Amino acid sequence: MQQFQESVYDLIVQTSTVLPADVRRAINRAKEKENAGTRAALAVSTISDNITMAEEQLSPICQDTGMPTFIIHCPAGANQLEMTRQIQAAIVQATKDGKLRPNAVDSITGTNSGDNLGEGTPVIHYEQWEREEIEIKLILKGGGCENKNIQYSLPAELEGLGKAGRDLDGIRKCILHAVYQAQGQGCGAGFIGVGIGGDRTTGYELAKKQLFRKVDDVNPHPDLQKLEDYVMETADQLGIGTMGFGGESTLLGCKIGAMHRLPASFFVSVAYNCWAYRRQGVTLDAKTGAIQEWLYEQGTAQKMTDPEMNDVHEPDTEQRREFKLQTPLSEEDVRQLKVGDVVLLSGPMYTGRDALHKYLVDHDAPVDLNGSVIYHCGPVMMQEDDKWIVKAAGPTTSIREEPYQGEIMKKFGIRAVIGKGGMGPKTLAALQEHGGVYLNAIGGAAQYYAKTIQGVHGVDFMEFGIPEAMWHLEVEGFAAIVTMDAHGNSLHAEVEKDSLARLAKFKDPVF
């Protein structure tokens, strides 16, 4: 199969950079629901712009390209060892070309392999079938939404919903709770795959396989179809909204599958996927490896700039102020900000993720961070003519830094943190005491934010790997929304409290 590796490479690039049309239609429906002028409407509009930019530039939609997961159907006698070697070669090339971020980290040493290869990655599932062609499906599911996967063992007591038994209604409660617990940390509005039954491993596998279904398909099992329809009608009523900002669109798709289980076990497994629903597939000629057909409708069939989808509602009553600030920031700059304000930052900014935060607790910083801004971001970077170029640079989920953030801000005089999904009470207290602010960028909008980065002035801790290194960036007009301020206010806490109250309204049996 002379063309097999090339075909896999093309599949990787298409999956990373172009959303299929069924996903775009779902996002446009969300865009239509949100009230114009609200934070949620601003977020979904930014998402739409980012999708278009990624396709035009053939660059990653989101900087977190996840762990590549392939499901391959092949005829008996196909050389799976050779296919695996060529898939690995295609992965290495796509990483080198900036279509994938190097994401393979040794769990013991913390070392990044740099080429997305390592023990257990990429994930490849082979299944034989009686057809002559080869089918390859690929999903790129980022770590932020992967962390919001959840598995329930029934019977269970669920927050806001009470007892969930071993029946269809108990499953219903688990799914609603799964949507509630994701909040804005999984880059909503999102899609979910649900696996009912199996054991702990196969339940999660079944849930993730549901994400390969088409958004607008119909479940052949009548009870599961009814449950899917119910979840789609109900989830938006939780009021979590795009990015967890509150709003009208919380869930874009729900797909449910079931398998047999042991008498003692009843698992409900939920795989949460962000709006950047990157999955694609191809059929290949088994002799040549050439692509015969793309399995999901190409993205350009549904443009994201459809004027009929914009501003269909009257402006909401949300009050929003806008501030243009130059870094480094003063305490006075920060204390004037309130939840809901839009901030446009220009000047130096530093990236910092898990490895850096852990390091800074016990060590000095390599640069003066007084008044600085830390961006929770693991960018896709490429070196061109001895210069680093930012290929994708959206925010990562901030809550992972909750054990460190407040302490580090006070220790080094950091005034602002940018990320997605918000942070907890420990950080909120530190913001109030120290004079700091949390700015929520739009999760997954990697091209939108890369455009604001005017240059890379340096990098520290490359030994942590490209995503975890401390990149010295120069930004202009970097836009984010204040969601935690220096006055003790948190939009995330408000939305979570409100959505929990709404969740409780669905406590009574339905099925």
Automatic annotation (TrEMBL):
It is an enzyme of class 4 (lyase). Belongs to the class-I fumarase family. Residues 307-494 form the Fe-S hydro-lyase tartrate dehydratase beta-type catalytic domain. Keywords: 4Fe-4S, Iron, Iron-sulfur, Lyase, Metal-binding. It comes from Marinicrinis sediminis. Its EC number is 4.2.1.2. Its cofactor is [4Fe-4S] cluster. It catalyses: (S)-malate = fumarate + H2O. InterPro entries: Fe-S_hydro-lyase_TtdA-typ_cat (IPR004646), Fe-S_hydro-lyase_TtdB-typ_cat (IPR004647), Fe-S_hydroAse_TtdB_cat_sf (IPR036660), Fe_dep_fumarate_hydratase (IPR011167). Pfam families: Fumerase, Fumerase_C. It comes from the Bacteria. NCBIfam families: ttdA_fumA_fumB, ttdB_fumA_fumB. Residues 6-282 form the Fe-S hydro-lyase tartrate dehydratase alpha-type catalytic domain. This is Fumarate hydratase class I. Homodimer. Catalyzes the reversible hydration of fumarate to (S)-malate.
